[in-house]
Protein: GCN5 family N-acetyltransferase
Organism: Leisingera methylohalidivorans DSM 14336
Amino acid sequence: MTAQDFELRPLRESDRAEWARLWTGYLAFYETALAEEIYEGTFARLMSGAAWEPSALVLTSAGSGDGPQPLAGLVHFLYHAHCWKPSPVCYLQDLYVDPGIRGQGLGRRLIEGVYAAADEAAASGVYWMTQHFNSQARQLYDRIGVETPFIKYQRP
């Protein structure tokens, strides 16, 4: 299979269980676990369609119908204002592809889906972060993005 064998589309209500499976895998990679109420709240926010809430795209087998179906990958992204730019910027927050089907261009396809959504929203840019040890993802990111010199800090 190749990336073209998968449909890229917005997350649907019927995707709840599969979305949770993939997001749990993503969080486990970063050695994180969240309470069920965070899952419920995040999914509700992803489904809200509000401009200030995050959005999600998913990959599923092409032509697999409207009902619940296995998901191959997900990406969460959101827009926010930027003091240096006249239009919002897009932050790609979470990107995950099912480990059993990696290496087929699905991560790239998800990122390109965010690029297209950001272009449609007239965002002035797309950015994301990853941990320095995430070497597999960084191989893709080095081909599809530009590493910046910024270091992230946060309140202790």
